[in-house]
Amino acid sequence: xxxxxxxxxxxxxxxxxxxxxxxxxxxxVLGIVASSLxxxxxxxxxxPLPEPLTIEKLxxxxxxxxxxxxxxxxxxxxxxxxxxxxxxxxxxxxxxxxAKEAIGSENIAAIRGSLPEDWGSAFKSD
Length: 126
Prior knowledge:
- This protein is mainly alpha-helical.
- 64% of the residues lie in helices and 0% in strands.
- The protein has one domain: Globin-like (Orthogonal Bundle), CATH 1.10.490.110.
């Protein structure tokens, strides 16, 4: 998977037109998810993804995961990107759906099991 695929997919959303906003949004969603996971599952999430979506970039120097619910993630994105609630949810689902193929179904199952329950719909297996 190329990083440009994620950017282009996000730009198909009505509320994201610029590459820079798509880039920031992808990193925000995946950063929140990676920061909610223990080290092993954060690596399961990030290792299959293209640069610049590395664990180092997405989690920075965070030592301990802080589980964030799907709804709290959506609320954070609403504020950060000035989105409506449904737009924030669409953004999360679009980022995760686009990344899922690279991440792989075995990793998806492990990641889903490590996140708060309300993330289930975003990480459902196809």
